[in-house]
Write a structure and sequence with these properties.
Chain B: Keywords: Cell membrane, Membrane, Transmembrane, Transmembrane helix, Transport. Chain B: It is a multi-pass membrane protein. Chain B: GO terms for molecular function: transmembrane transporter activity. Chain B: Belongs to the binding-protein-dependent transport system permease family. FecCD subfamily. The complex is a heterodimer of chains A (355) and B (341). By secondary structure, chain A is mainly alpha-helical. Chain A has 15 helices and no strands. Chain A is globular, with a radius of gyration of 20 Å. Chain A starts with a helix and ends in a 5-residue tail after the last helix. Helix content of chain B is 75%, strand content 1%. In chain B, helix 1 packs parallel to helix 13. The two termini of chain B are 15 Å apart. The chains are: A mainly alpha (355), B mainly alpha (341). At the A-B interface, helix 7, helix 8, helix 9 and helix 15 of A face helix 6, helix 7 and helix 14 of B.
Chain lengths: 355, 341
Amino acid sequence: MDKHTASTERNAPEVASVARPVLRAGRIRQALLFTASAVLLTLAIFAAISFGAKDLTVSTVWSAVFHYDRSLMTHRIIHELRLPRVLGAAIIGAALAVAGSLIQGITRNPLGDTGVLGINAGAMFVVAVSFAFFPDLPYGTLIILSFLGALMSTLLVFGLGASAPGGLTPMRLTVSGAVTAALLGSMTSGIAIYFDLSQDLAFWYAGGVAGIKWSQLKILAPILLIVIAWSMGLARSISLISMGDEVALNLGLNLRRIRLLGLLTVVVLAGLSVSAAGAIGFVGLVVPHIARKLIGVDYRQIVPLSAILGAVLLVLADLGARMANPPEELAIGIMVSFIGVPFFLFLARKERREL
Amino acid sequence: MSRSLGTGDTRTTKAWLVCFVLAGISFAVLVLGLNTGTIRIPPLRVLDTLFGGGSGRDHMVLFEYRLPRIVVTVLAGAGLGAAGAVMQGLSRNALADPGVLGLHAGAALGLVMYVSFFRDLEGSVALFIPLFTFAGGVVAAVLIVMLSYSGSRGIVPVRLILSGIGVASGLSAITLYWSLRLDEDTYAFTARWLAGSVWGRDWIHAVALLPWIVIVLPYVLSQTRSLNNLSLGDETAAGIGTSVKRQRLILLGAAVALSSASVSMAGGIGFIGLIAPHLARRLVGPMYQHLLPVAALVGVVILVTADTIGRSVFQSNAIPAGVVVAVIGAPYFLFLLSRTK
């Protein structure tokens, strides 16, 4: 990892130059932002539970959540179908957004995202293989495999980029990530086609949160929440790294250790998310940029705000995917792409660096 | 490429020889491929049937079912290989590939538009399919060029690749959304198409693809001098007397036509346009009068082989050729990426 430090210094006009953010939002502004986004998330979750194939009133939702009654059909719909789905979307959205913000900070690449860099695709490929050959694996095992898949593609992409002459430029990382994603995605669809995997086709092409069950959520949610909290602990060091290697080195930071820890965190977040919801791209790309624009360049605020906003985005995208063309469901990744792609192109246009 | 420079004559002879060998390989793979699947025809019987012998059943299977698909595969392979060679020359970027740059995603959108208009992939309206995919390819190309163009610097290579990735994702999302709005089956067809399965299997599909390749490919072959000049760099090309802007636009249009028409019948197959020119350069050097025909033939060999592997090795449920190509092609791309500056 140290090999490319020299080269990244040469081309390190910061992420900040892309977003032109407020340098650091004042205390009051920060408090307001967090309160507002938390309110927004609550509203989004309630809307997503209420609307769907069967519209429900807010009072029904309220009583179903807080005074659950097994004998009522509406309560059962909410409890068995909507709640795990919506909560799953929220927690996975948060995880993907945090993973994106970490990777953008570590690589100083404004286009960093677990989808673009092929990390999701690695996890997805392993999930497809295990569905094909060992369809009855317990979910706990699948999580571990998914994590290993994400680890494999991360090592591949970063290893390739770093071994090249000129080192790990943001451009090279993005391209090798995109090609790795194409390769693994292609193999995933090949496996899905060849083995006639009965799972909804959309899951294999653009992810989906429809199938999340309480049993999965029970394992997934605590781990993801712990890892997101742990990411906030890394945030200070990541802030320093994002200012440039010299700054970080002068402050006595162990760059290599932080980078490895950060990447490992990203791999855990991506691997776990994919195991439950397939490969959903762009959340990790778009959300950190919005957070940075709103709250400034300090990752101690960017990471938590990204978590909340990522949850909002995925809950709304899932609601949109359900409402777009009922009774059919659109893949959630397509909905996110609609929001994410224009933004990605806007950023690509601002990219001033050469190869 | 460190290659001893021979005289023009020996190089041309070598190029002819390479072309001949590649054509022979393609033919051999095709004949062997006929010996797989539900109705097998052994190689000798294939040759016999081709020259007028064979039973009536062999005749029907070969000419009605197998041959149109073979023609589609051969034409599409040639189109993709040549399109890649032209794109790499135009952008002077060894990593330019119609698939990576998002042209195929545009073609896919065109295909879905066609389906929502005509709802029929079989009848004589199928002649319009390449027209729609070409329109989609042009839309994608215009978008990518606009996004990567900067007033002061022309087309910025970094932005070209990044815009390509973004445009490809965006257009694929629109395509899948639109196909799901039509019906489940179209959605499944589109998803499979995006994975790169050769689906053109009737004479109508071969006929639809034929004019695009037999008109555009010879035209591009007649332009090898401009391609040679353009790949030297704009100043040099202008100095020699090439009208750079116009030539580049026309040739880009030709490359989009070749690749969009090819994928219209063969599915969104990436990487052929990337690998074929590279292998061709290794075989016959960088001059376009040798490179272009060889790249087209390498494209044929790759697609024919990938399709045969996908259908015969994985019996009962064929794997799309695009997946086979990606498994071989992506590592090669990554290898190239790790060596270019």
